[in-house]
Write a structure and sequence with these properties.
Blueprint lengths: L16 H7 L6 E5 L1 H10 L5 H17 L3 E5 L12 H20 L3 E5 L2 E6 L6
Parallel strand pairs: 1-2
Antiparallel strand pairs: 3-4
C-alpha cells in the first residue's frame, strides 16, 4: 500500500461487494476487485455453503458492475485446472468459482488468463500491433 499513488482508495468488503461497487458509482474512473476467489471463500468460511445463494451474490455484483459508470476490472484465480479436490467444501469452492468465472466472462468486454506473467487474451477485440 505504501507504493500506491495517494489518490487510490482501498475499500475492504468481505461480503456485500455488490453494494460497495454501487456506492463507488461516479467516484472512480476504474474500480479493481481483487480478488473474486477470496470474496467467494469468505462465504464458505462463514458456513454459507448454498451454491445458488452465492451465485445470486455473484449475479448481483455483476448487475452493479454493468450499471456503474466506472471501468470495472475483476481479478480472480483459476482454481479448476488441477486435480479434483478430495473434500466436499474444496470441490464446492472450485465449482462455484468456475461458474462465477463463466458468468463474468459472459458479460465482460475482455477476458485474460495470465500464466507465468504472460497474458493470454481469451475474449475481446484483437489488439493491433
Amino acid at each position: 500500500r505504501k507504493e500506491r499513488p495517494s489518490e487510490w482508495d482501498t475499500i475492504e468488503e468481505a461480503h456485500n461487494l455488490s453494494s460497495a461497487i454501487k456506492s463507488c458509482d461516479g467516484r472512480y474512473e476504474v474500480i479493481v476487485i481483487d480478488c473474486l476467489t477470496m470474496w467467494i471463500s469468505n462465504f464458505l468460511a462463514h458456513n454459507k455453503f448454498n451454491e445458488s445463494d452465492i451465485l445470486k451474490e455473484v449475479k448481483a455484483l455483476l448487475t452493479n458492475c454493468k450499471v456503474v459508470q466506472s471501468t470495472v476490472i475483476i481479478v480472480s484465480n483459476e482454481v479448476g485446472l488441477g486435480i479434483v479436490p478430495a473434500n466436499r467444501v474444496s470441490r464446492l469452492f472450485r465449482d462455484i468459482v468456475g461458474r462465477a468465472h463463466q458468468e463474468i466472462a459472459s458479460i465482460a468486454d475482455e477476458v485474460y488468463l495470465i500464466i507465468a506473467g504472460i497474458p493470454l487474451k481469451l475474449k475481446g477485440e484483437k489488439s493491433s500491433k
